[in-house]
Structures are given as C-alpha cells and as structure tokens.
Amino acid sequence: MKRPSSLAVLCLLVLGARAADAAPMIVAPTDTLQDAAVRIRVDGLMAGARYDVRSDFAGHGGSVWRSRATFVAAGAGMIDLGTAAPVAGSWSAADAQAYMWALEKTTELAPTMAVVENDDRSIVTVKMFQDTIVVAEKRITFLKRAPGVSMTDFHDGIVGTLYTPYGKRNVPAVIVLGGSEGGTMRDRAAMLASHGYAALALGYFGAPGLPQELDRIPVETVTRAVEWLKNQPMVDAKKVALFGGSKGAELALVAASRDRDVRAVVALAPSSVVYQSITGGRELSSSWSAGGKQLPYAPYVSSEAFSKSHRLIDLYEPTLAAAPAAAAIEVENINGPVLLIAGQDDALWPSAKMAEQLVARAKSAGFKPRIVSLTIAAAGHHVANVPNRPTGDSVRLGGTAAGLAAAQFQSWRAILEFLAESLRGR
Fold first, then answer.
1. What is the Cα 74 distance to its own chain's centre?
2. pTM reported for the whole predicted model
3. Structure confidence by residue, pLDDT tens digits, 372-389
4. Which of 36, 98, 339, 367 has the lowest CB atom count within 10 Å?
C-alpha cells in the first residue's frame, strides 16, 4: 500500500486543525417571513460538550421574552434543534420551533430599540453559550410583511388598512375580520398580502368612527367593504374572499351567506349560530343586524358550571345547545368554498362542534362547493394565529404551548393552500 507523501500528511494535519478550531456558527436565515418554519442548527461544536441555546425577543413595549435549553453536542459537533432533545430548559423534546413558542416574559427591558418589535418585523436573537461564554450568536428578523407590500389606512366609508403586493394587478382579494377584541386584524392581512393577495384588515367595531360594542353590528359593513374592494384597480372583482377568526368568523359566515360576490370563506374557530351581543349583559340583543333589523340569535344561557368557573366555554356550550333554529347560520347559501379550522381543546366556545354542525348543515342542504373542516388536537381558540410567536399565554383559551405552535403552522399551510385553490385555481 502506498504511503502518503509528507506534503499530503502536512495538508491533512492543517485541515484537521482548522476543523477542530472552527468557530461555532448558528445556521439560520437572517430575514424570513413571519409564517416561515425556521430550522436552527449550530455547527463547529465540541462533540459531547454541553451548550445552552438562549433566545431573546423584545415585544412592542420593549419587554424581553426568553427561552433557554441545554444540549449535548452530537458526534459531528452539531446541535440541530429539530432532532436534538434538550437535557434541561424551557422545553423537553426535540422541536425545531420550540426556541420561539417557549419564550416567556421576563422583567427585563430591551437595551436598544433596534431589536424591539414593530408593525413590520419581530427580531429574535439566538445565542449559544458554553458555560457563561457566548460562542455563537444569530439575529433572525421575522418580516410581518414582505418587501414591497404597501399599507394604506382608510377612515372614510370603510375603516381599515389595505395591504397590497408590489406591482401586482388583477389579484384575488381577502377581507380580514378580527374577533371580539375589536379594531383591525392587521397581522393576518399583512401576511396574506405577502403571499400575493390584496388584503383588507376591516374594522367593524372597537375603532374610531365605529360602534364601541359588539352589538347589532350591521352586516352591511362587510357588504360595503366587498363592493369597495372590488372597485380597487389591482383587484380581480370576481375573486373576493372573507377571512375571520372567532366572532369575525361568525360575521364572515353570516355576511357570505348574504352576499353572492363573496367567492370563498376562511373561518377560524368558527361559530355555527348567531350569538347574543357582547355588552356586559346590559342588552338582550343580537350581535348582528341587516336592513336595520337585528338577526335572530341564541341568547346566553348561564349555568351553574359557569357561575362557578367563569369559563366562557361553560357559557357557550349550554347556549349552543339551546340555540333556536332561526339563529343557525345559513352556510348553504355561501357562493363558494369554505374552510373551517378549529382547535379540539377550544376553551372559549365549542368551535370544533360548531364546525361539525356547519359541515352537516351544508351537506344536508346539498351544498355544491367544497367545505373543508380541519380540527386540530392539542390546540385551542388561537389555533390559527400567525406562527412564530410565544404561545404560553394562549393556553388560557385551550391547547398546549407546543400544540398551539404546531397547529398554527399547520393552519397557515392549510389557509394558503385553500386560498390558492379557491381563488387562483391551483
């Protein structure tokens, strides 16, 4: 067997020394959309050594959120968060997204405004520690709207914010409706525009110039917005969809059942009936009205369980059971496909059961378009929030932190696929 030359041996020794001395490096994108699944890997580590991975995120107010986990580097001198289970820390199983969903609020404030979250981006700083020494660091910017997506606020005739992709014409459009928190759901609209849609975050109450309580809100608020959006020069007037979550899903389904120009509906944590208004008990009235008259609704039915627990699910379950037939949403009248997404563990209202009722009603009425229902275990009311956020605070409305994080990625994939097929024919 031929022995290697002295020069070859020298080269091997130099290369080996460089590999051994290579600085640890965190492999992850620098910029990415908020709904992208980011996989983090750290290379150049000492095999068998222990390292801490720490993530810091500064919210709108500058408060710092943090997660931390300890790993043992693999034989290749690598830690992959998607395949390696930590030996201690904020999460316990291999999970590529845990560095984000496991973030918990601390008492600290961000040392610089450069890393504080704003309406356009969130920044997460990932650091790798060996003992107390930082051996690698990576700053990841999650973009809430893609470069080129424009934003315009409107307050005359309609109240909302329109997001449009740069240079696009004749694009499908989506009206985004928030829930009982009021105001506008800008993050979802911005993300949809980042995927090529004209997206209007529409306010229907709880914003300047609008009713301040969710009481007998005119369905015409949505109808006017549909007509307005159809007349925008970049919009394909024959491809307008409604997208709502919680009470916004209830409104989206009701409005679509009354407007033939709505060609698709995405309803997140949906309702199958019109519920009583949300006025703190001062009014016995419907959430919605049409033509100046309130729509038939299900009055709240209080129960002993609710009086003891004060959990909204203990209010809405008996209310749904006692709902009059006239309060049911006429989903069969919608002029296009419908996507329903619910968390099996919804602790606000029984959205999974109501999704089943919507599907059953549609099928019994011979509904011709597609109706797709996705119910996700280990997820609650926030089943379809835009991904890459801390989820620990969301478990109060059902699900687990890890389950919600996974559900939100699954939901957004389903939403984008549904809209592409329903509005773009692919």
1. 34
2. 0.93
3. 999 999 999 999 999 999
4. 36
